[in-house]
Amino acid sequence: MSAENQASVHVHRDDVATKMGMWFFLFSELLLFGGLFLMYSVYRYTHQHDFHIAAEGMNIFLGTANTIILLTSSLTMALAITAMQKGKKILSLSLQIITFLFGLAFLVNKFFEWSAEFREGNYPGSPILTAKPSGQILYYGLYYTMVGLHGVHVIAGMTVIAFMIRFTIKGIITKDNYVKLEAAGLYWHLVDIIWIFLFPLFYLIT
Amino acid sequence: MSSNSLAVDKSGNLPSYLIDEGKRKGILAWLLSTDHKRIGIMYMIALLSFFAVGVTLGFLIRLELLTPQGTIVNPQAYNEFFTLHGVIMIFIVVVPAIPSIFGNFFLPIMLGAKDVAFPRLNLLSWYLYVVGSIMILLSIVLPGGAADTGWTFYIPYSVRTGTNMIFTLTAVFILGFSSILTGVNFLTTIHRLRAPGMGWFKMPLFAWSLYATGWIQVLATPIVGITLLLVIIERVFGVGLFDPTLGGDPILFQHMFWMYSHPAVYIIIVPAMGVISEIIPVFSRRTIFGYKFIAFSSIGIAVFGSLVWAHHMFAVGMSNNAEFVFSLLTFLVAIPSAIKVFNWTATLYKGSIELEPPMLYALAFIFLFSIGGLTGIIQGALNVDIYLTDTYFIVGHIHYVVFGGTGIGIFAALHYWLPKMFGRMYNKKVAKVAFWIIFVGFNILYFPFLILGWLGMPRRSYHYLPRFQVYHVIATVGSWILVLGLIIMFFNLLKSIRSGKVVTEKNIWGGESLEWQTQTPPITENFVDIPVVNEAPYEYKQNEEEFLEKEEVL
Amino acid sequence: MEENKVQHVHTPGYGIYFYVWLALITLTALTATVAGVNFGKLSIVVALIIAAVKSYLVLTEFMHLKFEMRAFRIFVIVAILFFTILIVLLFSDYSFY
């Protein structure tokens, strides 16, 4: 076998495998949050009244705003992939940047929301929170953990998108080779899906 | 993987992966290699070193239990010893062992691929594995001392203890992440990189077992990941999650812990069953009996095994309905395991059995795993389990399953594949002697555990009543025999890697799967030409001509 | 055996995504509105059904699941089924005190 043939094997790529691997990884992410959803369901079941009362303290306006921000960022991400498929590099690039900025907006929103909670004294270990009934302590415990972990995933997704922006500029992602962008999109949409469930469970159960 | 690696040596062989360093030289050619075979070897080195640490701890625990009062260490050190022994043996050794070493090395070859689907991800999971393992070591040496909760990290003690819990928990989290990435990699590899002609039912059974394992790794591991992460968060930030003083439910922690840790038993055992399914037909020279049954029973074990977790918690006060459901499911999971055992024995029937060292280990696996499995079923019965919970019976059971199953499975795989991996044969006589010492020592060590448990000896106990001493003494003597056997075995294998008889024939044992059709040791990209698979695996009809033909092509 | 090929190009227009987005926003508005209505025990069910519909849209449209091989859809079903069974079995403990 000649060296050329050998080399041609190296450039062989399998886009389906890349996406498949990403999906498997997403299942892991799903079950990671799944564990938290299990906890949520048990504690909500055993402390229904406390959960209702605690959820009333949530800022529904900020929650809804964040939902819309994330849904729209999913839209721009999907559009960025289509634009790349059609070979419109500049359009795709701008859509990716917009997606990144939406992610940032989400986090800024979250920051204000959390600082408001902290000002009210509803932070873990605070005397105000510890004095509350145990169901409410659990509600806030889950709220900070689940939303916090989701925030970490938003940051991770933004990091991935930042890399995609770089790859697009450098011409690594092209009209014919955009599977990296697709995989990044899959991750971003998963972050969106998790928020789709977090939103009603923490903000809308009053 | 440079192109000059195609230079042919005098004997007409291409340079093996051990010689062909690619772009980098020396140690970096290993540490930065994305070749699945080199990564497999790196796993083997790291993993067997930790196995030695785990064995040492176990040895010391047995020594401590020689007398009913303290013998060599104080109670706190004893607690740390059995915790470390459990954490190291479970999370660092047996969970990753067979997929990481032999799966990495042989799965792509068995499928007729050049590498796994994501080679760089593969290297990343090795690094995660090493980081996780090192964190465990750090937890020992840093002030505060190693975790002393037992490997189950039960709440509330795991949020209260002053030991280095955070290191241990983070380490297990990272090891879990490494395990997930391995699972993702193998699943994708099996889906996408099978050689032309290799349909699902032409895959070797080892690949099937890794496929089932991959799904458990991907779906169940994140649950323990998040659970342990929550314990960390609870410790660091005081967030109310599990701690009962903050309203949490410690039983929920146990549920979530076992949701992974019971399927983990199947992550541990199913690949070992895959190894046994490879070895048995080769050394009985018969097509494996019930190929599809074995393949599907791997999937069946993965499915049912994920649904039985609460049988670890029969004594903690669950609802009666839950106890009934989980007891029933526990009995069901015995079926697919039994199918495998029946199929193996049916394969042996009328085969021309050769008692080579790998086969001896495989037969020992069937014997010991059957004891382990049957003692498990005993505990699946609710009323008996209430009596046996937290006794030495459990300890005996877990060692028969995990050591007698997976540990022996690892040894079987080592004796089966090591000559292929390094192109050198070990001393078979010494290997057989070591086998018998291990086998005898194993039973002397662990069988008294079952009796002790039946008599009511509680597990993890530092002191015990004098009337139990005779069994403890027998077990401790057994541990000496076992360790002696292990030393002989590893010495023999290490010696063979350094100076064993050189083997160059492709098919060392007369196997039919693809790894026996590549050069020994394999070349960097496994095959010069990607093989085309036409037959079902394990066809032992004497196809000498075809075999010779293939050899000429290669 | 699935073929090792570079993916088929399927380029849906931009339009469909806007419709999906519009549907998602409408559902969000809907779920936020009906949260004020007291359905009793049903309110959580309503919220979860709406969330499930939204996820379905994201999965099939944004995540291109409808263009992928059948295996991908089976994987997703397996993962979701696994989680569902975990919840059901877990509640066999909690719902029968």
Could you please describe the fold and organization of this structure?
The complex is a heterotrimer of chains A (206), B (554) and C (97). With 206 residues, chain A is mainly alpha-helical. Chain A has helices at 3-11, 15-46, 48-56, 60-85, 89-119, 127-130, 134-170, 179-203. Chain A is elongated. Chain B has a single domain (3-553), classed as Up-down Bundle (Cytochrome C Oxidase, Chain A). Chain B contains 16 helices and two strands. Residues 1-6 of chain B have low confidence and may be disordered. Chain C has 97 residues and is mainly alpha-helical. Chain C has two domains: 13-66; 69-97. Chain C has three helices and no strands. Chain C has helices at 15-34, 42-62, 70-94. The interface between A and C is large, with 52 and 49 residues.
Features:
heterotrimer; A: 206 residues; mainly alpha; Four Helix Bundle (Hemerythrin (Met), subunit A); elongated; disordered N terminus; C: 97 residues; 2 domains; flat
Write the layout of secondary structure elements.
The complex is a heterotrimer of chains A (206), B (554) and C (97).
Chain A: H1 3-11, H2 15-46, H3 48-56, H4 60-85, H5 89-119, H6 127-130, H7 134-170, H8 179-203
Helix pairs in contact in A: 2-7, 2-8, 3-7, 4-5, 4-8, 5-7, 7-8
Chain B: H1 28-31, H2 36-64, H3 75-111, H4 119-141, H5 157-160, H6 165-192, H7 205-237, H8 250-284, H9 291-305, H10 320-348, H11 357-380, H12 382-388, H13 392-422, E1 424-425, H14 428-455, H15 469-499, E2 501-502, H16 544-553
Antiparallel strand pairs in B: 1-2
Helix pairs in contact in B: 2-3, 2-4, 2-15, 3-6, 3-7, 3-8, 3-13, 4-6, 6-7, 7-8, 7-9, 8-9, 8-10, 8-11, 8-13, 9-10, 10-11, 11-13, 11-14, 13-14, 14-15
Chain C: H1 15-34, H2 42-62, H3 70-94
Helix pairs in contact in C: 1-2
